[in-house]
Amino acid sequence: MKRILTVLIALLPLINFAQDVQFFQGTWEEVNAKAKAENKLIFVDAYTYWCGPCKMMDETMFHNNKEVADYVNAHFIAYKVECEHDFGVEFARKYKVNVYPTMLMFNSSGQLLEKHLGYNDVQSEFIETFRKVVNMDQTDVYAMDPAKIKMNWPEFYAKNFKDANDPTWKRDKSVDPNIWLDQQTDLFNEVSWAVMYIFNTNEKYSKFFLDNYETYKAKYKFEAQDEINNIIYGFMNTAVKENKPELMTSAENLMQKYFPEDTSGLFYLRLNYMMSVGDNNGLANLMSNYIATNKEVYLGTVNAAAWNLYENCDDQKILQTAISWFQPYLPTITDYFAMDTYAALLYKTKQYASAEEWAIKAIALGKADGEDMAGTEELLEKIKKEK
Question: What pTM was computed for the model?
Answer without folding.
Answer: 0.73
